[in-house]
Amino acid sequence: MLADAPLQPESISPGEEGPVSAVSALVRTVHERADQARVATSAVDREAIFGELMTTCSACHQWLGGGPPSR
């Protein structure tokens, strides 16, 4: 589900100024990690991917000042 999530920088940070390319790179990384998680077979691999995913999410949330608003 995360691999296909529509994480478009423009929708994540409406009205935000700053380089959309930086957020775009983080979005690509999230989708790549999700794709890797789909095929991971060992717990060690899944744990490593999850850690990388959380690092990527954290970087994006910091970039956006806390992430997207709650709905």
What secondary-structure arrangement, pairings included, does this model have?
Blueprint: H1 9-12, H2 20-39, H3 43-63
Helix pairs in contact: 2-3
The low-confidence parts are none
The helicity comes to: 55-70%
Radius of gyration: 13 Å
Shape: elongated
DSSP helical segment count: 3
The helix/strand series, from N terminus to C terminus, equals HHH
Report on this model:
With 71 residues, the chain is an all-alpha fold. The chain has 3 helices and no strands.
Short descriptors:
71 residues, mainly alpha, 0% strand, elongated
Provide a brief overview of the structure.
With 71 residues, the protein is mainly α.
